[in-house]
Prior knowledge:
By secondary structure, the chain is α+β, with helices and mostly antiparallel strands. The protein has helices spanning about 10-20, 30-40, 85-95, 115, and strands spanning about 1-5, 45-50, 55-60, 65-75, 100-105.
Amino acid sequence: xxxxxxxxxxxxxxxxxxxxxxxxxxxxxxxxxxxxxxxxxxxxxxxxxxxxxxxxxxxxxxxxxxxxxxxxxxxxxxxxxxxxxxxxxxxxxxxxxxxxxxxxxxxxxxxxxxxxxxxxxxxxxxxxxxxxxxx
Length: 135
């Protein structure tokens, strides 16, 4: 397994990865333009490669000093349970300042995974969805 930080990843590669894991149901895999924006504006991307195949990605938006939002942690189902997700999170955290907090919203299928890595559940997360009106 080869890990890279900042590797060039194409939208089609990321879409293929999403479709090969549970995130495919929650990401805009049929909207290539949006996936291109997701890649262009994430400022920390750590990837895992099996030869030339993208098998894992941690896509993060961060200021590097105080907080980082781990927007996606994706590992192909065929490559899960090999420590790839843990290594992607470790490398993501290593790219941040020591006092930075790593925050994520877990997909329902992964809710039990994150405590195994040491993440703590936070009681107050709030979202304003794309169709929700700001009052």
